[in-house]
């Protein structure tokens, strides 16, 4: 059993890319505090989290998803850790996943993959070309990877020196290598496509991906569906086989984007001052109503406007930026962009969705965010059975239990952990993710995952407090 190193309830990051561990010495580009989400997935029926450096998997575990050498594990079977990493004494610092495959970044900067592999999305055709891979395969070794990401069937990795690798499905150009095909082996994306400058952060959406280089230039490739890259297109789909620079940022400095992501037909990003912007299909962006209305709603929810103003001031960038200042002209400008939502149009110019955010996670049809005051907000798709659970026509504050210290997410579900060591599941329950005996969907504040917590305590001891999956990570400045 690994030694449990409890340092804090959750870890925050002062720069991008995400600093994985004590190896990190990347240039600090912003002093803002944002909450790291180490598990960003599009998994459909499978639950996964990092706990004490271990990868825990439960729910649907066909196609080798458990990672323990068996192609299929029954959904009713107890949650289990991925044995390969335990046997090798490895700690996992990040997880990313598509619908049915998982990739993991270990504390040595190496990348592993397992699960469905028909388009080589798990292994990149490195060491295995099997359709289903039931034991983690080392995809990238000795490349010093610091960040990983996945679209639904494609995987990405960023190295410390700014190189980007891709592997998996490429039917929409999402591999970014200049061609289209059913699948792509592990390849480095040509640095010329990023202006011959090192990339400092990456992100992904449904059938597309993003990169930001060291001078703040933002690039996207794959399916530019519904104007999601900030260009007004006549066609619904534009397939970019190489990265395309996103130039329509409406004056937003790319160096202040700390996380860029998206879903089906939209892009979203979080700035260092806590503002979330989106562009693309209007129904995914939560932009119903004016920005001024949203600020009024904050007051109605009990927030003190003067206190909010003080918080905004505290969150100002060190360089004197007034990025958080919402002047009358800025509110008017944002509302003009939101008009598209009322008419069912796309919104190609980034429009402000919400503010005062420290964590952003987007997938498929919508997003979830955690505010600096530990509220959870969701927004996105206007229809379907989950429209009032996972989504919302505007950012909607959701009822939850306790103070949030960790978030894990999948295609249409969300897991959150509080400071009491309790986990909860919300959204689509298929695969028995929320209960060994049920596939039922769950509304807020969610189904308590007591059976998962109990299994963790069996392994780590009854005094262990689950939900501290990142507590062992050493990041500057705490490592000094």
Set out the fold topology:
Blueprint: E1 12-13, E2 34-35, E3 39-41, E4 46-51, E5 54-59, E6 80-81, H1 83-87, E7 92-97, E8 101-106, E9 111-116, E10 132-140, E11 145-150, E12 154-159, E13 164-170, E14 181-188, E15 199-204, E16 208-213, E17 218-223, E18 239-245, E19 257-263, E20 266-271, E21 276-281, H2 291-300, H3 305-314, H4 328-342, E22 346-354, E23 357-363, E24 366-371, E25 376-380, E26 396-398, E27 404-409, E28 413-418, E29 423-427, E30 442-448, H5 450-460
Parallel strand pairs: 3-7
Antiparallel strand pairs: 1-2, 4-5, 5-6, 7-8, 8-9, 9-10, 11-12, 12-13, 13-14, 15-16, 16-17, 17-18, 19-20, 20-21, 21-22, 23-24, 24-25, 25-26, 27-28, 28-29, 29-30
Taking strands numbered 1, 2, ... along the chain, how are they ordered across the largest sheet?
Answer: 3-7-8-9-10
Q: How many beta-strand runs?
A: 30
CATH fold-level topology: Methylamine Dehydrogenase, Chain H
Radius of gyration: 21 Å
Domain count, please report it. Answer: 1
Give the distance, in angstroms, between the N- and C-terminal Cα atoms: 26 Å
Q: Can you identify the CATH class?
A: Mainly Beta
| Helix content range | 10-25%
Ranges with pLDDT <50 over ≥5 residues? 1-32, 297-323, 470-480
CATH architecture: 7 Propeller
CATH homologous superfamily descriptor: Regulator of chromosome condensation 1/beta-lactamase-inhibitor protein II
The best one-word shape is: globular
Q: What oligomeric arrangement do these chains adopt? A: single chain
């Amino acid at each position: 059993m690994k030694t449990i190193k409890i340092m804090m309830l959750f870890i925050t990051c002062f720069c991008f890319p995400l600093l994985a561990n004590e190896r990190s010495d990347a240039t600090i580009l912003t002093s803002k505090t944002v909450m790291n989400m180490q598990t960003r997935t599009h998994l459909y029926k499978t639950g996964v989290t990092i706990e004490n450096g271990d990868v825990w998997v439960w729910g649907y575990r066909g196609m080798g998803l458990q990672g323990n050498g068996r192609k299929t594990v029954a959904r009713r079977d107890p949650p289990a850790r991925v044995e390969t990493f335990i046997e090798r004494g490895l700690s996992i610092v990040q997880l990313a996943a598509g619908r049915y495959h998982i990739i993991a970044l270990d504390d040595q900067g190496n990348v592993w993959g397992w699960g469905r592999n028909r388009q080589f999305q798990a292994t990149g055709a490195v060491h295995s070309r099997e359709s289903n891979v039931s034991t983690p395969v080392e995809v990238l070794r000795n490349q010093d990877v610091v960040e990983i990401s996945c679209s639904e069937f494609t995987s990405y990795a960023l190295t410390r020196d700014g190189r980007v690798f891709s592997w998996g499905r490429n039917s929409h150009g999402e591999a970014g290598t200049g061609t289209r095909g059913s699948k792509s082996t592990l390849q480095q994306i040509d640095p010329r496509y990023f202006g011959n400058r090192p990339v400092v952060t990456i992100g992904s959406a449904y059938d597309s991906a993003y990169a930001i280089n060291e001078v703040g230039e933002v690039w996207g490739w794959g399916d530019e569906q519904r104007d999601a890259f900030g260009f007004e297109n006549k066609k619904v789909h534009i397939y970019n086989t190489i990265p395309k620079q996103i130039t329509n940022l409406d004056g937003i400095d790319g160096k202040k984007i700390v996380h860029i992501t998206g879903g089906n037909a939209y892009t979203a990003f979080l700035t260092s001052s806590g503002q979330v912007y989106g562009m693309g299909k209007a129904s995914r962006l939560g932009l119903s109503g004016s920005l001024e209305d949203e600020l009024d709603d904050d007051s109605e929810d009990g927030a003190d406007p003067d206190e909010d103003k003080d918080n905004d001031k505290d969150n100002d960038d060190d360089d004197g930026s007034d990025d958080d200042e919402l002047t009358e002209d800025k509110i008017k400008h944002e509302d003009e962009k939101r008009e598209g939502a009322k008419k069912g149009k796309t919104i190609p110019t980034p429009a402000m969705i919400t503010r005062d955010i420290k964590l952003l996670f987007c997938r498929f049809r919508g997003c979830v965010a955690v505010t600096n005051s530990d509220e959870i907000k969701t927004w996105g798709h206007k229809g379907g059975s989950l429209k009032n659970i996972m989504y919302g026509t505007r950012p909607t504050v959701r009822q939850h239990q306790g103070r949030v210290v960790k978030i894990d997410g999948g295609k249409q579900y969300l897991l959150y952990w509080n400071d009491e060591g309790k986990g909860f599941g919300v959204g689509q329950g298929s695969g028995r993710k929320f209960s060994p005996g049920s596939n039922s969907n769950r509304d807020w504040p969610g189904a308590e995952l007591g059976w998962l917590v109990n299994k963790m305590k069996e392994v780590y001891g009854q005094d262990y407090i689950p939900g501290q999956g990142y507590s062992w990570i050493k990041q500057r400045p705490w490592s000094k």
